[in-house]
Amino acid sequence: MVSFYKPGKSGKAGTNRHTSNQHVKSQDRGGQPAQSRSVTIDSWDWQGLGVSRQHPVTFVDGALPGETCDVRIVKQQKNVAYATAIKVTEPSALRRTPFCPIADKCGGCQLQHVHADEALALREQALDSLWKKQLGLNDIPWQPALTGNHPAYRRKARLAVDARDSNAVRIGFRERRGKQVVDVESCPVLVTALNDLLPELRDVLMGHEGIRHVGHVSLLRGDNCSQVTVKITRPISQTMRDALTAFGEKLKVNVQLEGKDGNFQMLHDEAPVTCETEPGLYIAPQANDFVQVNREVNQQMISQAMAWLEPKPEERIADWFSGLGNFSLSLARRGAHVQAVEGVSEMVQRARANARKQGVENIDWLHLDLTKPHVIKQALSTGFDKVLLDPSREGALEVCEALAGSRTKKILYVSCNPSTWTRDAKVLLDSGYKMDKVGVLEMFPYTRHLEVMALFTQ
Known about the structure:
Helices cover 24% and strands 27% of the residues.
């Protein structure tokens, strides 16, 4: 889950849980624009970048193992370079034509040039090599990857709006390696219910001058209904409000405005959005709350977490970076006394209210900053049988350092950033914990994002 506390100048990773790689202007070491060159790709890294081990080692966006490519250098350092494939002269048998016609422009997906199953296998291999080297392990206790249906998997998305030129309004996603908005009329990775909204939603927005005051549009598909949230920077006309209301009534979706002050105004309310976590349990996210975008993989993830952690009645279990209770509810259902800690107070309040609505009372919901060692020490003071961690991309270094000296029997660590997970796992392993199980979760097929779940035991 996302921890919205932003660390200070500590050199940690960025604060956005799901961000793409950033690229800088191409220069050689003399400060001149770097030239393109031909490279042969030896392997993939865990993000799906081709790796050429010629000197300097070059990471290539858009290349596959075994290919020879002409590449353009986008960042040059002494012993490593980052590049983009501009021409594949010897293609791999794994290469395929992207199923989306704008995949080469849109920044939403980066790995449509290879089948999702092959991409997952290559990235597992990359992690296996990385962990054996950096964690000093001879054998990685791999478990089967968790995957779902694709391509139409994404139940939450944010559409950017660029209406600076009234004759060329664009509604869509940011471009690859840039900040411009790519116009998106249809998106095959959105769940069907959201993709079907796009044509009429675009017509409503583009039919009014008030689109100039729209910052972005958030889409969310719950199990019971869909929700459209229009972020506005200035008030819009009553005519445009009426048109958005009529859109919601016609398509039976929630439609609301989010003002510059962060307050919401519902224009059409079908029902509060709910997202089932496991049969009989659900979370109720608001527009800006974190929710896993892949419903099927999320439910598999929760099921696997319960199987690995084995919560039992009367055990004390900490669910840290708990969000709206994606895991907390399931832990509590199995009789454990749960301490759920989240860094966003509004989410803590909503999670508590939602749990009570479902009759779940054995969760202690706390709003704490788990980047502060003294807070962690206090939260750990009562002792826990087991701990579940699901931090943001920054990882949970301070927490793992504290747990390293604890007597916690089991630690289940779910990560959306294998790099910070590797750092944190080393802390636990060096302190005497054993990695009992580990597997990847394909929460975002066709993208660079990869999730990891691991069980550490004493």
